[in-house]
Amino acid sequence: MPAYTPPLRDMQFVLHEVLHAVDALKACPAHADADIETLNAVLEEGGKFAAEVAFPLNISGDHEGCTLDKATHEVQAPSGFKAAYQQYVAGGWPALSCDPEYGGQGLPFVVNQCFYEMLNSANQAWTMYPGLSHGAYECLHAHGTPEQKKTYLAKLVSGEWTGTMCLTEPHCGTDLGLLRSKAEPQADGSYKITGQKIFISAGEHDLTENILHLVLARLPDAPAGSKGISLFLVPKYHVQADGSLGARNPIFCSGLEHKMGIHGNATAQLMLDGATGTLVGQPNKGLQAMFVMMNAARLGVGNQSLGLTEVAYQNALAYAKDRLQMRSLSGAKAKDKPADPIIVHPDVRKMLLTAKAYAEGGRALMSYCALLLDQEINHPDEKVRKDSAELLALLTPIAKAFVSDNAWTATVMCQQVFGGHGYIKEWGMEQYVRDARINMIYEGTNTVQSLDLLGRKVLGNNGASLKKFGKLVAALVEQEGVNEKMAEFINPLAYLGEQMNKFTTEIGFKGMQNPDEVGAAAVDYLRVAGHLVFAYFFARMASVALKQIATGSQDPFYTAKLQTARFYFAKLLPETAMLMRTARAGGASLMDTEAALA
Question: What is the value of pTM for the model shown?
Answer without folding.
Answer: 0.97
